[in-house]
């Protein structure tokens, strides 16, 4: 069985494992108050060209999302997010469990537009009796999105402008940020992010860490209060240095982006192979979550040797499968897959 | 600087690191639905002689506490716990943030008695207008306690009897369970725990894992619903196999208890050394958190070479320091410390 | 200014005011533990032919909704509700503030269908990894709906069947229940409700009480626990007898239904008058919230003498206005309004 | 049976009932956006000599407490309150249900001292790892307290000074504010309150309204956001004018204080009668909740003709009974009670 169902199948590259092994028997102060964590934070600030940013390490993505939103919203506020977003669909109501409504917006391609955000805000702020409605307090987008599409710099900037106009924070969930930055057509670097939002994450779990999400906070008040929220939500790791050493490794010699590039290149290979073999796409893009449309028969045939995610069951009976590449994906596995896919057509 | 401030200074023993490294490039299904996790759960069930128990892995202790309590309590119920307990004092209101009151009870030595629990329940159930009061729905104890004392089998059994009488669940927080089981005077084994409570944890973070708490659930309904609560609170690890392989290693060849024994033996050494040197104890016991009382001058003198936790500032100006041993504590460090302590008297 | 914007403009009919005045200087035990409340509950049980029902009085509708849902849902469950429902749109996130997601469903006419409910449930229960999704635990409908449509007995029964199949409770928000029961075409009586759902409200605020919603609970466990939830959410009235005496009055000599009939008859008059004058309807039905479509000019012209609710701004620039009748609406005001409306055409 | 168990046995004085009756068939805009509510707010601002204050009307006390605290605290903050306080003991965990811990302080006489508040704050702010602790964000006191004692101006001012020093809000729960203001020894007027705290309530339920608590908010940000919190917690009354007209009546011709004086004078009578008859007091003070200590036999004898609250069961087997006076208490009932009490000695 060759697995393509997600981008967190394997552990971590050798540099990360070695960093953990090397620090393993050092005696570290707890909770991330250790020199490795400090150094990792500095490396991230440098990579983002943002010496004032607050940087915090968390273990997982849902945890990061719920903490950022619970910290950034007032009790009567909600977060605007795409209907396809992870927080709206795949977190067992984690955001609502912190007391906040998700103001979901239907999108064409998993991406919010500045115009849509503006409409939600206008509609709220034009209400006579605003007090019956949930006030939009933040906007949540992910880069890449749940369906693999991605925002351009201009698109994010336009959303952020609307956010500033309506006194909202913008949160960019970067669980797959590296895979976006290295995808063909990307016009963004890590150093752009601090200008484009109030808070973003640099995902580790899917991009070369055993686990870990770095939260980069540009908003001063949010940053100052963030540690309290982390602890209260059970997100403070006793051995915080484990997150520190991993991000130290990932942000040394550009490892983070190199790993991302590997996945991005293989994603293009998968995409082009699928296209030339004549497959349709559920959403057609070049990032690391490829969503080809297969017949039931094709899906079953392939499932004997490969595992995919059943991303969506289409009304016509076909299946949108998710095929992910990651830093750990093997070139030969991709080639074998493409050759087997071709035979099905 | 030799550190004694807590029992989670170092990473993990070689067996645990090797287990991670070995599984690192395997392709694992996500979220703990992998063979390593299944195997680890079986090993734990065997060690606990409890084939029907639900076993779940979480990353950290506060996370475990808040999920167990949020899962086990109805909205109008609270948890009875010692005033010195971790949940009452050191979790930034994590339990209250899930909506539940902690019904705190002052104790002599960090331990609830069955009698105290009974009094809280009687007082509630005898109330005419119960609906104004928080109903006790669970009891929380930790083994060892926050101050290092421990429950005997009979003491826990008595508390559990009261719990059953008043339809409450009993939760034993075992962040340091192994250190209790291997302490001198312990009359309990892992196999006793399932008979003594509704749910307990087998702590990894402080006892040989890089991170991880195993939650063992004896209550059927709680067990069935537990995974939903885990995900909702951000506690579901994407690469759940990381927890699985660690607990596999810890529960192979009795590693977990061997590591605990190492810490327990050194704790006795520290205790006896302190005693013979004439130090008082804040709480006098033989487990891995020793709490000698030092003068300011002694504390400062030692702090040049050692780090301790300032556990409590006493009214007479002296300091109760916390000196922890763990699976990773070096015999020679303990000897040096005791010799330096003696010189201070 | 003649007001038609809602059905809670005036206080209460003379019978209700007199009942309060009469009991005013009696000495009542607090919190609804008084003979008037007991009697009112019995009258309601009789009217519903349901001697075992739990009956509880609350002050307002949002309060009733949030308490019923917080009491009836487990933390990881959500409630299925129409996208147009009051709880989804007009309660400032009150339901989410108790930790629960509203699983909203787009409807044709403000009414959920059994088929739609079934689809949500199927989709959830067919999921492989259910634990990422919010489990449907209750269904919320209102009778009449927010747009004035109403469920037939068969429609509610079909939804309730689906609820039972999927172990969900059905909650019927009856803020306007009487107005539904007395509307033309209604095939339901109060005595049918207990067979059609797990819990329902008999609205007072809009139907003849100064304030008050009676919650009738058929589910035994929900009923037993309900008082605790009421108190915890701040819904327990100190002078609960105020609710008791009002419902005593409303359920004596069929006052409740007589008041409803008055509103229902005038609603028909408004509807027929609008229709014969050639107005379109946003939703065309015969209940007490009439939603004619007006041009901007018509809306403004009428607003000089009347107040309406601006129910919706249509894409073509026209306005759906809400014209409500109630127990207090005057026949002559309706006639004047219809005559003025006719002149605008 | 003559009832003395609480101060909310009866409805309202004739002026309040008449005000409701008079406005009953007016057509009022909903939710307190009506002229009566506006006028009542102005009257309160005048009485408080505080033209800028935000004034909001709520139905009940627990509701007021939970809304004020949920609105005024950040998620990681808690409220300092006496262990005897209503919020800590008698609200079914309503505050914790909004996610906040109550930092309870043991008191001598139900009153927090500035010194005690300071110690809690110092202890928190001196902590090295503050992030493990609940940050004190507000202080809650009630005037009179749950045990009937009351704060002097200087005492409140001292607490408020500490609050300002540590960036906390001070909330004075005035469910019995009038009874405090009119008690012998009071050195405070309504006009002093705005200088002494961030937010306070002027209780109606126990002091002449059928129901209602006026929340007076001096903190600008809290005031601006307050309406959203009210609606979200189910506290917004549809017929808000009902609260408006009651407070209009109460704040016309000093009715509020006159009613309070009646209760206060009778309380003194009860107190002096008890004293001269030789009864001990659980807490000895002159306000409207008198707490004499009775033997079981005395308590039972009296309970044949009177109802009291069993306030506390004393270790020596005696009972602290609560005897309340209110605006509605009859002089002859007090005289009969005192005469019967005397006979028991």
Structural features, described:
The structure is a homotetramer of 345-residue chains. Chain A has 345 residues and is an alpha/beta fold. The first copy, chain A, contains 14 helices and 14 strands. In chain A, helix 7 links the parallel strand 5 and strand 6. In chain A, helix 2 runs parallel beside helix 11 and helix 3 packs across helix 10. Chain A is globular. The model of chain A has no long low-confidence stretch (mean pLDDT 97). At the B-C interface, helix 10 of B face helix 10 of C. Chains A, B, C, D: One of its GO terms (biological process) is amino acid metabolic process. Chains A, B, C, D: This is Threonine aldolase. Chains A, B, C, D: It comes from Megasphaera cerevisiae DSM 20462. Chains A, B, C, D: InterPro entries: ArAA_b-elim_lyase/Thr_aldolase, PyrdxlP-dep_Trfase, PyrdxlP-dep_Trfase_major, PyrdxlP-dep_Trfase_small.
Could you tell me the strand content of chain A as a percent range? 15-25%
Instruction: Kindly state the number of beta strands of chain A.
Output: 14
Calculate the mean pLDDT score of chain A and round it.
97
Q: How many domain modules of chain A?
A: 2
Number of helices of chain A: 14
- The CATH architecture of the largest domain in chain A can be given as 3-Layer(aba) Sandwich
CATH class of the largest domain in chain A: Alpha Beta
Distance linking N and C termini of chain A: 21 Å
**How would you spell out the order of helices and strands of chain A?**
EHHEHEHHEHEHEHHEEHHHEEEHEEEH
Decide which structural class fits the backbone of chain A: alpha/beta
């Amino acid at each position: 069985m060759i697995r393509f169902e997600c981008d967190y199948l394997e552990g971590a590259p050798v540099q990360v494992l070695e960093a953990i092994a090397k620090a393993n028997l050092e005696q570290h102060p707890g909770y991330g108050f250790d020199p490795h964590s400090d150094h990792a934070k500095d490396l991230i600030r440098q990579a983002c060209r943002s010496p004032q940013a607050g940087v915090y390490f968390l273990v997982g993505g849902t945890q990061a999302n719920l903490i950022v939103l619970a910290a950034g919203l007032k009790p009567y506020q909600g977060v605007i997010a795409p209907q396809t977003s992870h927080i709206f669909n795949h977190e067992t109501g984690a955001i609502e469990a912190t007391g906040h409504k998700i103001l979901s917006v239907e999108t064409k391609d998993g991406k919010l537009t500045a115009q849509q955000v503006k409409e939600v805000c206008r509609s709220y702020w034009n209400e006579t009796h605003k007090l019956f409605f949930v006030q939009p307090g933040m906007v949540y987008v992910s880069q890449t999105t749940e369906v693999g599409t991605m925002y351009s710099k201009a698109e994010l900037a336009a959303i952020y402008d609307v956010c500033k106009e309506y006194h909202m924070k913008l949160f960019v969930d970067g669980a797959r940020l590296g895979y976006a930055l290295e995808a063909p057509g990307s016009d963004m670097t890590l150093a752009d992010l601090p200008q484009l939002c109030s808070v973003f994450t640099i995902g580790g779990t899917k991009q070369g860490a055993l686990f870990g999400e770095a939260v980069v906070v540009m908003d001063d008040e949010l940053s100052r209060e963030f540690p309290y929220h982390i602890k209260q939500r059970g997100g403070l790791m006793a051995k915080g240095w484990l997150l520190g050493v991993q991000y130290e490794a990932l942000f040394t010699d550009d490892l983070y982006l190199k790993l991302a590039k590997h996945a991005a290149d293989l994603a293009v290979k998968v995409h082009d192979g699928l296209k030339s073999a004549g497959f349709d796409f559920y959403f057609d893009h070049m990032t690391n979550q490829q969503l080809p449309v297969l017949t039931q028969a094709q899906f079953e045939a392939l499932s004997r040797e490969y595992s995919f995610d059943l991303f969506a069951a289409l009304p016509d009976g076909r299946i949108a499968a998710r095929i992910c590449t990651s830093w750990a994906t093997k070139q030969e596995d991709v080639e074998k897959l493409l050759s087997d896919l071709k035979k099905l057509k």
